[in-house]
Specification:
The chain is mainly α and 166 residues long. It contains 5 helices and 2 strands; from the N terminus they run αααββαα. Strands 1-2 form a two-stranded antiparallel sheet. InterPro entries: Nucleotide-diphossugar_trans.
């Protein structure tokens, strides 16, 4: 996914013609939702040239706000027409959503449980969260930090993706 909307060039006609805009209903994932919808109207070209590196930390941004309230997996696929995706793209998006589901579990640690966290269906595209994935969510959510760190260390040594919980 695009990391920063300020580093992208898009033809204005594509956005106007297809009535593409950020959907506030998809917050806090409105940017990712926009890129997924935009991907239906052309190809992306990636250039890894770094002309400038600038990073600003905004304490008041949505990403940095601390809250005692449980967060749900963001609505990345809000108003996405699932039928326009090829099977390979659907599988990639499902994998992405599953990883985000696990990240949500990690970010909800030390917060009161909310039954909406264990929703069986995410979005109207019928991406189902299996019982197995809910068990993993529950383990990540409630496992002691020391045990979780040991698992992450074990996965790292085996060459697996250690970001399963980050």
């Amino acid at each position: 996914f695009i990391l920063s909307g300020s580093s992208v060039l898009i033809k204005k006609e594509v956005i106007i013609k297809n009535k593409l805009n950020f959907l506030s209903e998809a917050e806090p994932a409105e940017d990712v939702n926009f890129w997924i919808r935009l991907s239906r109207y052309g190809k992306f070209v990636f250039c890894n040239y770094k002309g400038v590196i600038y990073h600003r930390v905004d304490e008041n941004s949505i990403m940095n706000k601390k809250s005692d309230k449980v967060k749900l997996t963001p609505p990345f696929l809000y108003k996405i027409d699932w039928s326009k995706f090829m099977q390979k793209e659907k599988e990639y998006l499902k994998k992405f959503i599953k990883k985000e589901y696990y990240k949500t579990a990690y970010n909800n640690r030390k917060k009161f449980l909310d039954k909406r966290e264990f929703s069986l269906v995410l979005y109207k595209n019928n991406i189902k969260i299996s019982i197995f994935n809910m068990i993993i969510y529950f383990i990540i959510r409630f496992m002691p930090e020391k045990v979780l760190n040991l698992i992450k260390l074990f996965l790292k040594k085996r060459g697996k993706d250690e970001n399963i919980c980050n």
